[in-house]
Design a protein that fits this description.
Strand content: 5-15%
Number of strands: 10
Number of domains: 2
Largest sheet: 8 strands, antiparallel
């Protein structure tokens, strides 16, 4: 997003020229550090925006069935069909989201969890896959770097923090300062560096606010900041909104252990059944969830112990329809019933941000806008790389020149330090980059000239 200086270094006031060089230098470092990761996040994120559509297409033989003018079989019959095909313990039943959707039953086996897809009209088993192994679950794990271990996930926080630095410094460098061309239009041809400079700057200008939004709303998934804020937002690791903390026996199990849940409820503990006698059946539990009005497509986690509960949960695109209900497995009475409206202001804000980040809040418009932003991120990265290559002196890295007055770094580093305190891993990476910059300066022995 680097722009041309509107005046030469000789004619510009020293403070202006030096500050420009300082910002440009750190903008360069930010791009060098995170643009490869941002390309990966943009590509995988752009695909995941359409996760339901793509999974329904790619796994149509498992997820879709022919619509018939007939009632669905009872859930217990569907679970029995799934267990005939894959022997094991039934852990979860997923209600078909529409008339053309299959039922999904999660079975626990010695080899792990397996999802069995069953035709809800006649109980035919359509096939089975390991849990969370669909095309879009694979893309999601790539997007969050879960495939590469815990430490790799820390890159999410570092990338998001440096993306904020990239946008802020890029807007500062773009600022016209009397410049007429390259502000909101692209000059020249692809053979010229000014074309790539303008393409980089103008694309960044229009996409910058959206990139900031994605960076901030992606932070809840980060390894350090996200985990700590999650604990704090859930209220000393309890998980439920304040109004729902009641005197109930609670298990040590968390909601995220039994079923996919929202970020705000990952730490939520599950209550225990206190009744005695004959447990209700899955069919009766599903009938209760239907009477309570849970949105279609809800998941039912089955009790695994005498103290376990039936947990019905659903997280549709419409945030107002998010809901989690725990039923006593003996009496069928709701122990806890919570929805999006029960979250506190912080929880609602975070969930809205996450929902919008995933392209769900505003339907197709949400998906298409963020898809355009993902394409813009790739274009910004590619144009920045081409611009650097054309500017780079032969045989050199092409690091932007140091300011003559090093004092301009003080204010810049103070701003960066504030960000480092708010986002600890970003702060650590800032210190590493600062140390590497000092090593680079000393090893070079002198400041290499570079074109502005």
């Amino acid at each position: 997003m680097r722009g041309h200086m509107s005046v030469s270094a000789k004619s510009a006031p020293p403070a202006v020229g030096d500050l420009y060089r300082a910002v440009w230098r750190w903008h360069f470092y930010a791009g060098l550090l995170v643009l490869p990761f941002m390309i990966t996040l943009a590509l995988t994120g752009g695909l995941y925006l359409f996760h339901n559509e793509l999974d329904d297409w790619y796994h149509a033989d498992l997820r879709r069935v022919q619509v018939r003018q007939a009632p669905h079989l009872p859930p217990t019959a569907l679970v029995a069909s799934a267990q005939d095909a894959v022997p094991g313990t039934a852990l979860k039943y997923l209600d078909p989201v529409d008339a053309g959707a299959s039922a999904e039953i999660t079975i626990g086996t010695d080899r792990g969890k397996t999802v069995v897809y069953v035709d809800p009209y006649d109980g035919t088993v359509l096939g089975a896959m390991p849990d969370r192994s669909t095309l879009m679950w694979t893309v999601r794990k790539l997007h969050s770097f879960k495939y590469f271990g815990t430490y790799a996930r820390y890159l999410i926080e570092i990338t998001a923090g440096w993306a904020i630095i990239l946008v802020a410094s890029g807007i500062w460098l773009w600022w016209p300062r009397g410049q007429q061309g390259g502000v909101i239009s692209v000059r020249g041809t692809p053979q010229r560096r000014v074309f790539w400079r303008d393409l980089h700057a103008v694309t960044g200008l229009f996409a910058g606010a959206f990139i900031l939004f994605l960076a901030v709303t992606g932070m809840p998934w980060s390894g350090v900041w996200g985990a700590k804020v999650n604990e704090w937002a859930n209220g000393t690791n309890f998980g439920y909104p304040d109004g729902l903390r009641v005197n109930l026996p609670m298990s040590g199990q968390k909601l995220n252990d039994v079923s996919k849940t929202t970020w705000s409820l990952e730490q939520a503990q599950i209550p225990e059944s206190t009744g005695t006698g004959q447990p209700i059946s899955l069919d009766e539990a599903v009938a209760i969830f239907d009477r309570l009005g849970l949105h279609r497509g809800y998941a039912v986690a089955l009790p695994g112990t005498p103290q376990g509960v039936f947990t019905g949960s659903v997280y549709p695109d419409d945030l107002s329809q998010q809901r989690v209900v725990h039923l006593d497995q003996y009496s069928g009475q709701p122990l806890l019933d919570m929805s999006y409206a029960d979250y506190g202001p912080l929880g609602r804000a975070l969930e809205w941000g996450i929902n919008t980040h995933m392209g769900q809040t505003f339907g197709l418009t949400n998906q298409l806008v963020l898809l355009a932003v993902c394409a813009a991120i790739v274009l910004i990265a590619v144009s920045g790389a081409v611009m650097w290559w054309k500017r780079r002196p032969s045989g050199a890295l092409g690091v932007p020149p140091l300011p003559q007055d090093r004092r301009v770094f003080r204010g810049l580093l103070a701003i960066l330090a504030i960000g480092g305190v708010l986002f600890p891993l970003v702060g650590v990476s800032l210190l590493v980059m600062l140390a590497l910059d000092m090593i680079w300066i000393r090893s070079a022995g002198r400041v290499q000239p570079s074109k502005a």
